Amino acid sequence: MFTYYFDLALRSLKRNKVLTALMVLAIAVGIGASMTTLTVMHVLSGDPLPGTSSRIFYAQVDNDPMPGDRHVEPPDMMDYQSAMDLWNAKRADRQALVVNPFPEKVSAPDVSRPPLMVQMLSTTSDFFPMFGVPLEYGSGWTPDDDRKRARVVVISSDLNDKLFDGGNSVGRTLVLNKHAVRIVGVLKPWRPSPPFYDVRGGRYANGDTASFYGKPEGLFLPISASLEMNDGDFQQFNCWSMPPKPGHLVNAPCNWMGLWVQLDSPAKVAAYRGFLAHYAREQKGLGRIQFTETRLRDLMQWLAFNRVVPRDVKLKMWLAFAFLAICLFNTVGLLLAKFLRRGGEIGVRRALGASRRAVFAQCLTEAGLIGFIGGFFGWLLALLGLWLVRHQQAPYSDLVHLDLSMFAVTFVLAIAVSLLAGAMPALRASQISPALQLKTL
Amino acid sequence: MQIRPILSALKKHRVATVLIVMEIALACAVLCNACFMIADRLSAMQIKSGVDEASLGFIALQGYDPKNSNDLDARVIAGLGAISGVESVHVINSVPFGMQAANVGITLDQAGKEFRGVPEIYLGSPGTPQALGLQLVAGHMPANEDYQPVQGYFPPSSNVLITRTLAKHLWPGESPLGKEFWSDKYQFRVIGVVAHLSVQQYDEEGERGAQWTVFVPALPGPNFSGTYLIRAKPEDLDRVMVEAKAAIATIAPDAVLDREDSTTVPVLRTRFFAADSAMAGMLVGVIAALLGVTALGIVGLASFWVAQRRRQIGIRRAIGATRGDILRYFQTENFLIVSFGIALGMLLAYVINAVLMKFYELPHLPLYYLPFGALALWGLGQLAVLGPALRASHVPPVVATRSV
C-alpha cells in the first residue's frame, strides 16, 4: 500500500512543480538554519567529561573580607591559604588545584627553533587521571613530584608537533624562561569542549563567553615547582586590596587558585560539603575570613552557573527555530491549497471506495516525501552553514562538526516537521465528501 | 470598499486565514526583535575610542627579562622610530580594543569606603596623550614633571586625565579638576578631562562603562615596558606595522613578539567587533529569508483562493464589478489579514522581547520599532498579493456562464 501511496505522491509532486519547489525550499531553508545552530549548540553545551562529570566538583569558599552586598555567592577562585589548606586535607578521592600563570617563553635547547610564548597551566598530579587526559607518550607526574617540587612538565601534542615534530620527546629538556624542565609526558590531541577546568567568571561576561572554548594550554607543570619558576607571573582572579608586588600572589589578598575534587559516592559528596562548611566556620573563628558561604557544584552545574554557552549562540538557535516555525506555517498553507485543489480527484477516489484513512495516509505520505526531500536539501544547507561557522574567527570554530546523531536528527526533524505540517491539510482532504465533489464535475 | 462582505468571506476560509495571520504574527515578532538586535549591535560598534585610530598601531613584546626593560625600551623606541613614516613611538600599556591591561576598583576616599566602580587605566609615557590624539575639554595635559616611575601597579600619587563620562559619574554637576580618587594606596588627582577614551575591552559595565577610563602619566621601567604605541600617517600605517614587526627580530632578539596583539588599531577594532558584525549580518540574512518565505506563503495561498473563486469573480464581473473593484477586493482582504497578524505579532514581539531581556540580558524593545515592522509587513503583503489579485481582475465575466 505504501509503495502505491509513494507512487501517487511522486506523481502529485511532479504535477505542480512550482508549488512543490516552494514547499521543499521552505522546509530546506528552515531545516538548514535550525540544524546549523542546533549543531553548534549541541557541540557547545555537551558534557566535556561524559561518564565522570557527575563525580567531579568545583569547591568555593568565601574568603573575601570586604563588606558589602557581594557575598551572595563565594568568589569563583580561592586565595593561596584556603586552596592549600583544602588541598592538603586530602578529603576527596582525587583533587587538583589549577592556576594560570601568564604565558611563558619556551624553547628547546637541542632544537633550533625560535622561542615561543606558550600558555601554561599549573596544577597537581591528579589532574591527568581525574580528567581522563589522554597521553601519547610518558605519563603525568607523581604526587611525589608535587611534594619535591620536581621540575617536570607535560606538553600538549600541538606544542610537541611544533618543537619536536611530533616525536617521542619524553625525557627531553625545555627551557621556560631560564629554568630547565624535563618532559615526562606528551598529550594526545585533546580538545575538551570547553576546557572546563579553566571556566570561571562567566557571571561577569554579559553572555559573551565564546572565549571559554579556546584550546587547552600547551604546558602543564606542578604548582609546587611553578610557584618558584613563575613567581611574579601569576594572574589574579580578583583582589580585595592591592598585592604588594604585581604577579606575586602567594600571600597576597587575592583569589587566583581553583580546586577541583572527585567524589565517588553521594555520601562522600555530603561529607565534603560538611567539611567545606566546617572549614569556613573554623577560619571565621580564627578571624581570617568574615563570611561562611561555601559551594560545591558538580562539573555540569559549574558550567551552567558560568553560562558557558555564549549568548549569541543561544539567540541564533531560537531565531532559527522561529524561522523554522514560519516555514512550517507556510508549508501548511501551501499543502492545504494543494490538497484542496485536488478535491475533485479525492472525491472520485472516495466514491470508488477509498476510506478516509486511505486518503489521509496518502496525503501524509506526500507530505512526508516533501519533508524527506526538504531534509536532504536542508542537510546540504546545514553543511554549508557549518562550513561558514568553521570559517568564522570564533574560538570554538574548529569544534563544530555534524556528527552522526545530528545527521539523523536532521532527517527526523525534517520529516516530523513536514508530517506535522501535513496533518491538518490531510485531515481536511480526507473529509471531502464524495457526493458533493462528484456533483460539481 | 465594504469590509463586512470580505470578513464574512474570510470566515469560509478560516484555516487558511488563521495560517497567514500566524505567519505574519511570527514574522512581525521576529522582524521587530531582529531589527532591534541589529540596531543594538551597530550602536555598540559605533563606540568612540577618542583616539586617532587610523594613525595608530600597537606592538607588544613578551618573554624578555624585566631587568633589561629600560634597555629594551630604548632600543625599540630608537629602532622603530628609524622606520620611514613613523612619527613617534611611546611606551603605553594598551590601546583601545587592545589587550586588557589594568582595571581597578576606585573609591572617592582614602579609607576605601566610597566605592565608585571599576574603570580601566591607561599608563603612558611622556607625549602619549598627544600621540593618541586625545581631545582635552577641561584642565590641561600632563606636564613633564607629572610623569613618574611606576611602583607596583601605578605611581604612588599621580596627576591624571579622565574622560567626561567618568567625571560626570564620579562628581555629577561639579568640576572634576583638582578632585582626587583612590585605589587602595594609590592616589589620583584629576588635572584634565578628555572628550572620549574608550576602554580596552568592555563587557562588565556594557556601554555605560565603555568610557570609564583614566590616563595615568608614567615613566617606563620594570613594571611598565615592552608595549608600544606607534604613530604614523594613515596612508603609511599598514606598511609601517609590517616593517616594525619584521624589525623587532633584529632590534630585540631577546623578546618574543606577540603577533596577535601587535597590529594597527583599525584591525584591533574590526577584530573586537567581528562577532557583533557577524551576528548583525546573520540577522539581516534571517530577516531577508523571513520576508521572502512570508511573501511566498501569501502568493501561494492567494493564488489558490483566486483559482477557487474564479466563478464567483466571474459572476461579480457579469453583474457590473469593474476590474479595479476585484483588484481592490483582494488587496483589502490581504490588508485585513495582515493587520490581524500585525496586531497579534506586536503582542508576540513584546513577549519575545521580555524573554530575551530575562535570559539574554537584552535591553527593552523601543515602541517605535512596532509601526516600522507593521509598515514593512503591510507593504510586503500588498506586493505579494498583487500578482494573484491582478490575475483575479483579469477573469472575464463570461466565466459566470460556464459550469466550471
From TrEMBL, chain A:
One of its GO terms (cellular component) is plasma membrane. The keyword ATP-binding applies. The keyword Amino-acid biosynthesis does not apply. PANTHER family: ABC-TYPE MACROLIDE FAMILY EXPORT SYSTEM PERMEASE COMPONENT 2, MEMBRANE COMPONENT OF TRANSPORTER-RELATED. It comes from Dyella thiooxydans. Its main location: membrane. Keywords: ATP-binding, Cell membrane, Membrane, Nucleotide-binding, Transmembrane, Transmembrane helix. Residues 319-434 form the ABC3 transporter permease C-terminal domain. The lineage of its organism: Bacteria, Pseudomonadati, Pseudomonadota, Gammaproteobacteria, Lysobacterales. It is found in: Cell membrane. It is a multi-pass membrane protein. This is ABC transporter ATP-binding protein. Residues 20-225 form the MacB-like periplasmic core domain. The chain crosses the membrane at residues 21-44, 317-337, 358-384, 404-427. InterPro entries: ABC3_permease_C (IPR003838), MacB_PCD (IPR025857), Macrolide_Exporter_MacB (IPR050250). One of its GO terms (molecular function) is transmembrane transporter activity. Pfam families: FtsX (PF02687), MacB_PCD (PF12704).
TrEMBL record, chain B:
Keywords: Cell membrane, Membrane, Transmembrane, Transmembrane helix. It comes from the Bacteria. GO terms for cellular component: plasma membrane. Pfam families: FtsX, MacB_PCD. Its main location: membrane. It is a multi-pass membrane protein. It is found in: Cell membrane. Residues 54-246 form the MacB-like periplasmic core domain. Residues 286-397 form the ABC3 transporter permease C-terminal domain. GO terms for molecular function: transmembrane transporter activity. The chain crosses the membrane at residues 15-39, 279-307, 335-356, 368-386. Belongs to the ABC-4 integral membrane protein family. This is Uncharacterized protein. It comes from Dyella thiooxydans.
